[in-house]
Amino acid sequence: MKLALKLLAAVLVALVLGAGSALLVVRSGGLGSQVSSGPWETDLTIGSAEADPYTRAQVAVAGLLALNRNETIYFTAARDGDGNRLRVDCRYKIEGTDPPARWWSITLYGDDHFLVSNPQGRYSYGGESVARNEDGSFTIVVGPDETGGNWIPTGQGHAGDTFTLTLRLYNPDESAARNPSGIVLPRIAKEACAS
Is residue 44 part of a domain? Predict the structure, then answer.
């Protein structure tokens, strides 16, 4: 009887450790072929036959309906240009020019991978909806307080809550699909924080 209990305990420990480590890898996004351009990161295997089971699980958990990389490149930013986590109680300025793609969008998501609820119902801007500066560039402000212009609200979170931004490049140029880390992407600069 003692041997059976020891075996059962060993199996339970192995299951908990195995499931826990797999969940940790899936939630942290740690195994793929990561490349970055400033604060924006992408995994070269997303939307490809080379995606391992962990990458496929990460895509499923994040709710990302990944198209082939020749059709769409997905970049995510969890940090600003200085390497600090994006926080709902801070205001950020995203500045740039159109990335090399037929169409693009920048969308704000909570840490739960869902859109952040806000009274304005505003979650993203894209190449056709963003107001332009005189030189054709764009500026998007992300933060808790309305600023007018291109503003994405961070919702009613608590100080210290974090979020991510997803930049989608639809029908990217061939050179961008081949070398996503070589693309010049919008800058993300923190302007101020409430706390």
Answer: no
Q: Which helix (H) or strand (E) holds 22?
A: helix 2-28
Locate 43 and state its tokens. Answer: 């995994």
Q: Could you tell me the residue range of the domain that residue 185 belongs to?
A: 71-193
* 1-59 pLDDT per residue, tens: 776 666 666 666 555 555 544 444 444 444 457 888 999 999 877 655 555 666 556 55
Report the residue count for the chain.
195
- Contact (Cβ atoms closer than 8 angstroms) between residue 91 and residue 141: yes
**137: CATH:** 2.60.120.600
Asked if residue 10 is part of any domain, the answer here is no
In a domain, 150, yes or no: yes
DSSP string, 120-142: T---EEETTTSPBPTTS-EEEEE
In a domain, 75, yes or no: yes
pLDDT tens column, 95-147: 999 999 999 999 999 988 899 988 899 999 999 999 999 999 999 999 999 99
Amino acid at site 109: Y
CA distances from 63 to 58, 113, 143, 151 (A): 8, 7, 24, 24
State how many domains the chain has: 1
